[in-house]
UniProtKB/TrEMBL annotation:
InterPro entries: BTB/POZ_dom, SKP1/BTB/POZ_sf. SMART domains: BTB. It comes from Fonsecaea nubica. Signal peptide: none annotated. Coiled coil: none annotated. This is BTB domain-containing protein. Residues 20-87 form the BTB domain. PANTHER family: BTB DOMAIN-CONTAINING PROTEIN-RELATED, BTB_POZ DOMAIN PROTEIN. It holds the Pfam family BTB. Gene3D superfamilies: Potassium Channel Kv1.1, Chain A (3.30.710.10).
Length: 230
C-alpha cells in the first residue's frame, strides 16, 4: 500500500522512534508516538495529554482493554491516513478498528474502517466471519453510532439468500439474531424504511431502490402499488 506523500515524513519519524514524547501501551506492546500527531486527531488522547500530571513528563496512556491489532491499525492511521489491511478475519478486525475509533473519537478512522468492512463484503464475502463480527458492532459501540450498523445491515440485505442456505450458517444466523436483538431490530428497521435494495451501475451494491412498476401475481394486472393496508 502506497502512503500519501504528505504522510511519509511523519511515518518515517514514527518508524525510527525519534523525538517521541508519548507512549501508548496495549498489553505487552508499547508504541512510542508523537503528541502533535496523535492528539490533533483524537479528542480522547488530547484530553489525556492535557492533564496536569501529563504536562511535566512523557505521558503514558494504557489501552490494554483493546485489541492490539486494532490499536496497531489506529496508530498506523494516525501517521498515514490509512491502515494496513488484514489477511484474515477481515470483518471482525475492521469492526474492532471501528469500535476503538468510536471509543477514542477518531471520526476519519471510523469511516475508513466502515469503508474497508464494506469492501470486504464485496470482494471476499464470508457469512460465518461476518456473523461473528455482528456482536462487536452492535454490542461494542454506542447505540447512536450508526455508521457500521448501517453498513452491516446493508451486507445482510445484499447476501440475504446465502444466509439462509447452509444449515450451519442458518444456526449461526439464528444464534446471532437471538443474542444480539439490537441487530435484529436494526435489520427490521432497514426493511421497513427501504423494502427494496439492489445494484446501481453508478452507486454499486446495497442501494435502496424505488420500483418502476408492480404486477399483481393474482390477476396479473400492472395497475398495482405497494400501498399499506388501510
Amino acid at each position: 500500500m502506497a502512503e500519501h506523500p504528505t504522510w511519509l515524513p511523519a511515518f518515517r519519524v514514527y518508524l525510527s522512534g525519534a523525538f517521541s514524547d508519548m507512549t501508548i501501551v496495549c498489553a505487552d506492546t508499547k508504541f512510542q508516538v508523537h503528541k502533535v500527531v496523535v492528539c490533533s486527531q483524537s479528542s480522547f488522547f488530547n484530553t489525556a495529554c492535557s492533564e496536569p500530571w501529563a504536562k511535566s513528563k512523557q505521558p503514558t496512556v494504557d489501552v490494554s482493554d483493546d485489541d492490539v491489532e486494532a490499536v496497531k491499525r489506529m496508530i498506523d492511521f494516525f501517521y498515514r491516513g490509512d491502515y494496513q489491511d488484514f489477511e484474515t478475519d477481515k470483518f471482525t478486525q475492521h469492526a474492532q478498528v471501528f469500535a476503538i475509533a468510536t471509543k477514542y473519537n477518531i471520526d476519519k478512522l471510523a469511516q475508513k474502517a466502515a469503508d474497508k468492512f464494506w469492501n470486504a463484503n464485496i470482494k471476499c464475502w464470508d457469512a460465518e466471519a461476518f456473523l461473528k463480527s455482528v456482536p462487536i458492532i452492535f454490542l461494542g459501540t454506542p447505540e447512536q453510532v450508526l455508521g457500521l450498523r448501517d453498513v452491516a445491515t446493508r451486507c445482510v440485505r445484499v447476501h440475504f439468500i446465502q444466509l439462509g442456505g447452509d444449515a450451519d450458517i442458518q444456526a449461526l444466523w439464528r444464534e446471532t439474531c437471538t443474542s444480539t436483538p439490537t441487530f435484529t431490530f436494526h435489520l427490521l428497521q432497514s426493511f421497513h424504511g427501504n423494502p427494496l435494495m439492489g445494484y446501481c451501475e453508478k452507486c454499486g451494491y446495497g442501494q435502496a431502490m424505488e420500483p418502476h412498476q408492480y404486477r399483481c401475481l393474482k390477476c396479473r394486472s400492472r395497475h398495482a402499488t405497494m400501498k399499506d393496508f388501510k
